[in-house]
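Notes from the pairing session

We agreed to fold both candidates in a single pass and log them together. This is the raw record for the first candidate, unedited. Please don't reformat it; downstream parsing expects exactly this layout.

Candidate A
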Amino acid sequence: VRDEIREINMGLLAGHSWESIEGGLELKKKHRALEYDYRPFGGESAEDAMERVIRFLLDTKTRHLDREVLLISHGGIVRLLHKLQHGKSVEQTENLSLYTFDLDKMADIR
């Protein structure tokens, strides 16, 4: 278990439905587009999360050079990985889905 790939820290908003949060539907759009900033609620921004995921990927690439690695994580991290590889986020990730990423094709971690 690695802290760098834990779910996005939403601070005080964690555990609440989007509908129960004032302005929640707008926050949901920002969350899915990786334009969120939960720091005012004691959480993290999209940039904070991206930095920790990149640290994890750089370490993984060094430790497991030329090997395939299985990563199990939450949808928010999958969206970040998708953005790193394809230059854009995905709107929705499905539970128990399988995604394949190539660290050599992620410009930010070369």
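Candidate B (folded immediately after A)
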Amino acid sequence: TGVLSVVNAQKSADFDDDCDVDQVWVPVVFQWNFFFTRVVSVFGEVGPAIVYRSISIDCPSIGDDDCDDTDLELFEPVFWGGGRFLFSDSVGLVVRLGTPAVTVGATFLM
């Protein structure tokens, strides 16, 4: 019962505590493009990423004012698929779906 009471105390404390996570992702991907028209294309991306995470948890309910941790992953796989819609010959909208994120952005072609 000693282990269970510690687990229960920590589990109940987690609901009231503040947690902040900051992440920096640096992906390096291979991209395959498939053009349906001059305006519309889709693509797939796969590759590794370097990920730095900084975690800060305030835990006053278990007697610890600040629990900080950092993590550096040198290989985190990423997989994305997306589409591109060009408004002109050099400016367009890009939507990327996959792991670890969903993004919307602009593309500028030269």
